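To whoever is on call:

I kicked off a structure prediction for a single chain this morning and the downstream step that reads the tokens threw a length-mismatch warning. I double-checked the sequence; it's 305 residues and nothing unusual in it as far as I can see. Pasting both halves so you can look.
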Amino acid sequence: MLLDCVRGEDPLLTEASEHLVEAGGKRFRPMLVLLASHFGDPLASGVVPAAVVVELTHLGTLYHDDVMDEATVRRGQESANSRWTNTVAILTGDYLFARASDLLADLGPEAVRIQARAFARLVRGQIQETVGPGADADPLKHYLQVVADKTASLIAVSGQFGALLSGAPQHVVDTITSACEKIGIAFQLSDDILDIDSETEESGKTPGTDLREGIRTLPMHLVLAGASSGSEDARLRDLLTQDLTDDALHAEALALLRAHPAMDRARADLRRWAEDARAELLTLPDIPARAAFTNLCDYVVSRTG
């Protein structure tokens, strides 16, 4: 269904749309839809279309992200903006959103409203990330709000759709929605930690990419918010305010950050989000899908070592 939805009459639009679908990816969001559907009837007619909707929406954001980030590679393949043009990439993303909306129309007005509100959060999160915190804002609180809106919102909707469209009871729908939002935040925090701490490229990108690109993630915010006056702390805070595209400065900053107590504090925050999600999930009926969800909470923590 995912492939069928992106194929159209225009050859270029079809080729560009198929580009990221065929490049693969974890299919994490549709997996959550299917998993959550086991709290109702997993064979209900709206479940698979909803799984396609969330993946199309996610893919659409990736096309737009690559334009904004001027990315050249996505999922091991040449990015659409690099292979064609920014205009083609933007319009392809728009096309995927349109195809998702077409599927949504058959799932009822409540599903349309849920998706529209999640999409508004996605855009708000991207704007907030682009503009940055205001002069009087708490940078860490701002960062966590960006994570919740930009990343966790669609992950929450994935669980919500699976439970809702399978006919699960409302309290189950609400619990899964809330837990999936927390899982989404935890996944992003684990990516933050992996980007700094991994010695290989297993995280999907070269370690220290966020540092090099000037993207401040949880460990960096914790360093900058710290009150320690040690020489290494002062040096690291100074580096985090600089352009780290220079290889030597980047390597120094990465080494200091890896050794900083902020990494342990970030792991503690990650565990808290995952444990909060687990606590909510354990109130659900004891079926294999619940065990799969709680195992997912364990995995989010364990992948950071």
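Update from on-call: the warning came from a stale cache, not from the record. Cleared it. Sanity check on the structure: The chain has two domains: 8-139+161-167, 169-305.
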